[in-house]
Amino acid sequence: MFRFIASEDNTHVHVSGINSGKPFRDNIKLDKAGQHVQKHYSSGLYSHIVADKAISVFQFSLTQIGHGDHADPSMITVVPIEQYAFEYTFTTPEYSHGNYSNYFMFIIDSSQTSGLRIDNRSLAGNQVYHKIPETHLVGGYMKISVGTHTVMHNDPTTVFGGILVGKADHESYGFPVGLLLKPINADCLVSQMIEGDKIDNDCDGEIDEEQSDGKDNDGDGQIDEDCICCPFSGPKLPDIFGRR
């Protein structure tokens, strides 16, 4: 179940994706600011949501038994792509009667899947990726163990979204594992860069997407204009720690 909430009058929302192998599209109109529309989509849907004005999107899991059982729904805030990060560390919640079955869901550029790491390990060789039509993105999920985990990309300029969900008897949970707390949907002013400042210095909708390597990493004709970090210019490691 998805809820779309408008921030302005006359907002149009387009949902496109793939549902159990078949193309899916839906168009929604929100006439007034604050109005919401709720849609029941299949759990097999991998989709991309675009609106012509700012909206909030929330995903709700349904109850396990039926309409009379209200013990186990959960609500997930759907994070905008502009607030994706390249690394997340999180801990699975505790269940009151044992352990949840925990799953990590992710969305990433289809050309960057090989760089994903969970707890310093590559994803399983049989990991399934679902292409999302009309985008360069793919989505997937994996079952994870109880405890603390770190999911990251080996290229710090590659960002991805992550959601942690879990289920147990009459209980469930779901939440985004993190996000960049940067302003979006606001006027952007080109600014002086400080490496790793988590600011969209060149106003291209991305944050710290370049590396300080003298190359145009994002293909926009500019070099090192919005960098994730600065090159290490100090003494080499053997000079710091001594030779062994």
How does this model look, in words?
- There is one protein chain.
- With 244 residues, this protein is mainly beta.
- The chain has three domains: 1-60, Immunoglobulin-like, CATH 2.60.40; 78-184, Immunoglobulin-like; 187-244, no CATH class.
- The protein contains one helix and 16 strands.
- It has one helix at residues 237-241; strands at residues 2-6, 11-19, 22-30, 36-39, 45-51, 55-60, 75-77, 87-91, 101-109, 116-118, 121-122, 130-131, 137-144, 148-153, 161-168, 171-176.
- The strands form four sheets. The protein has a five-stranded antiparallel beta sheet, with no helix packed on it. A four-stranded antiparallel beta sheet has the order 4-1-6-7, with no helix packed on it.
- It is globular.
- The protein starts with a strand and ends with a helix.
- Residues 231-244 have low confidence and may be disordered.
Give a short overview.
The chain has three domains: 1-60, Immunoglobulin-like (Sandwich); 78-184, Sandwich (Immunoglobulin-like); 187-244, no CATH class. The chain has one helix and 16 strands. The protein has one helix spanning 237-241, and strands spanning 2-6, 11-19, 22-30, 36-39, 45-51, 55-60, 75-77, 87-91, 101-109, 116-118, 121-122, 130-131, 137-144, 148-153, 161-168, 171-176.
